[in-house]
Amino acid sequence: MQIQEQHPVLDHAAALGQKLLSAEEIRRFRMAEEQIQRSRRVNELIEAIKRKQKELVHAKHYQKTAYIGKLEEELAALHEEMDNLPIVREYQQSQVEMNDLLQTLQKVVADAVSEKLDVETGGDVGQGGCGSGGPCGCG
């Protein structure tokens, strides 16, 4: 098997990936992620949540109804405390912004390709795509 030369489009995609790393949304996300990883309180809460989840699994297995309710309340309180930490809120917001940027980029590329090649974009492959007898006419 012969190794083919890398396609020029892949070179452009790699260059775009490098440019994306310097985008404000990506930079903010990476900084927030680092802060989350270094946060003692966040890590304590994560460990407490994991312990409570294991307890909950065991309680459900042994059908300890009253204990299940208590554990679910404790888990909800831990999640609420975690979600209300400013560092976690910043991380979640930066994640939303980064995802929006990446989805916009994906749409721009898909629209550009679709416009030039007159192909459909989006949707489920099994819904009207090849092999389903959909708009492409294959069956």
Features:
139 residues, YheA-like fold, single chain
Description:
- It comes from Salinithrix halophila.
- InterPro entries: Bact_com_dev_regulator, Biofilm_formation_YmcA, Com_YlbF, YheA/YmcA-like_dom_sf.
- The model has no long low-confidence stretch (mean pLDDT 86).
- The longest helix is centred in the last third of the chain and has 32 residues, at 86-117.
- The two termini are 34 Å apart.
- The chain is elongated and about 60 Å long.
- It has a domain at 22-103: YheA-like fold (Up-down Bundle).
- With 139 residues, it is mainly α.
- It has five helices and no strands.
- Helix content is 73%, strand content 0%.
- It has helices at residues 8-21, 24-38, 40-61, 65-83, 86-117.
Helical amount: over 70%
How confident overall, as mean pLDDT?
Answer: 86
Largest beta-sheet details: none
How is the CATH topology of the domain at 22-103 named?
YheA-like fold
Protein name: YlbF family regulator
InterPro entries: Bact_com_dev_regulator (IPR052767), Biofilm_formation_YmcA (IPR016783), Com_YlbF (IPR010368), YheA/YmcA-like_dom_sf (IPR023378)
Pfam families: Com_YlbF
Organism: Salinithrix halophila
